[in-house]
């Protein structure tokens, strides 16, 4: 978005960056995400993140604390647009949950803006135990909690996770591994194929219950 | 396994390793897998692999060629026990495919011996395009081809992939991210929960067709 009002936005000059100008925090987070994606959690270096963000390494620590906290902030930033969409969803009938959840998820992954930050933190979480612990806390608290509350019956948490793993598996195969024909299947077909499986996990039936 | 017969097995002395003793190839592959898992495909170094395998870097190249070929060999070694199990499966009725595929897959991932090599190459495939291309060729040719042949009707390849993504998603959440309650659910319960979703993808119905 352009900012014709002249307010300081985007990439400020170095001096401004050093004293906490608007955008510095975001720039550090962007750099952190890129470094976590490229080198994994273990090998990601605060020094390299600071260099990419054009700030002093001490400023990275000042804003975010140690590497774990910086990673948690990167996960939070990646998950935030998704949890905002979930919060903005009107309450769904149980019979619609599978389709709603599937379409919301595919929408998030179809857009590169929301996909790339998620992928970056997911890659780190898959290669390091500390990163995995941070990632699963965010996924459980911010992404699955509302779905779990909505589900009737026992085992709601397990059922929500089984539905989520279906969608994450598809996302990795489609957008990262680019397995064919999955990668070039149009998203509408994919939503129609996935909805019954997701609904089956969530409610025990692939379709709306008879008489509903 | 102990080798009381005195045949040369396991880790031979350095001189033996250099001239192609039995086990050298396997030791290089083990070292390669560990390096790919730890540092990812991009940052994995032939020199570090050679050091870990206690051989000259030239010998790694002599056995496997460039990094891509070494990675392909690591993928082949990881996938081989799985494709062997698939080949050993008796032909299944279509109504049993979901359960068979689910149980075979969970069996492979429950055992650390077969899980770790797969995870190592999967992690690299998720972080690098060259590695992803090698991985998907193996998955398509060695793991999904037989299932696809068995499936009736159109879209067999897409349906096999949707079923596989369900299982890979569960594997990553259970064995790597350790999402709860999924990680501590017993494998029998998991097989029962997953079978209908996998069967739904493979055949369009979560259970055996009426009258079958």
UniProtKB/TrEMBL annotation, chains A, B:
Residues 13-23 have a biased composition (Low complexity). Coiled coil: none annotated. Residues 1-24 are annotated as: Disordered. Pfam families: TetR_C_16, TetR_N. The keyword DNA-binding applies. Residues 1-12 have a biased composition (Basic residues). Residues 45-64 bind DNA. PROSITE patterns: HTH_TETR_2. The keyword DNA-binding applies. It comes from the Bacteria. Transmembrane segments: none annotated. InterPro entries: Homeodomain-like_sf, HTH-type_TetR-like_transc_reg, HTH_TetR, Tet_transcr_reg_TetR-rel_C_sf, TetR_C_16. Keywords: DNA-binding. Residues 22-82 form the HTH tetR-type domain. This is TetR family transcriptional regulator. It comes from Streptomyces chisholmiae.
């Amino acid at each position: 978005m352009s900012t014709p009002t002249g307010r300081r936005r985007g990439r400020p000059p170095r001096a401004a960056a050093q004293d906490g100008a608007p955008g510095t925090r975001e720039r550090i987070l962007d750099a952190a995400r890129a470094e976590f994606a490229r080198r994994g959690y273990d090998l990601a270096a605060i020094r390299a993140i600071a260099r990419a963000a054009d700030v002093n390494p001490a400023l990275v620590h000042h804003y975010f604390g140690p590497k774990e906290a910086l990673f948690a902030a990167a996960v939070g930033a990646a998950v935030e647009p998704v949890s905002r969409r979930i919060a903005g969803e009107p309450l769904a009938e149980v019979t619609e949950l599978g389709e709603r959840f599937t379409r919301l998820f595919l929408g998030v992954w179809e857009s590169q803006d929301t996909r790339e930050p998620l992928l970056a933190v997911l890659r780190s979480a898959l290669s390091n135990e500390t990163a995995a612990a941070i990632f699963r806390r965010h996924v459980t608290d911010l992404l699955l909690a509302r779905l779990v509350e909505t589900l009737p019956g026992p085992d709601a948490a397990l059922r929500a996770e089984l539905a989520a793993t279906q969608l994450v598996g598809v996302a990795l195969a489609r957008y990262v591994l680019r397995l064919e024909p999955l990668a070039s299947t149009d998203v509408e077909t994919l939503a129609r194929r996935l909805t019954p499986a997701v609904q089956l996990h969530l409610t025990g039936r692939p379709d709306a219950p008879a008489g509903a």
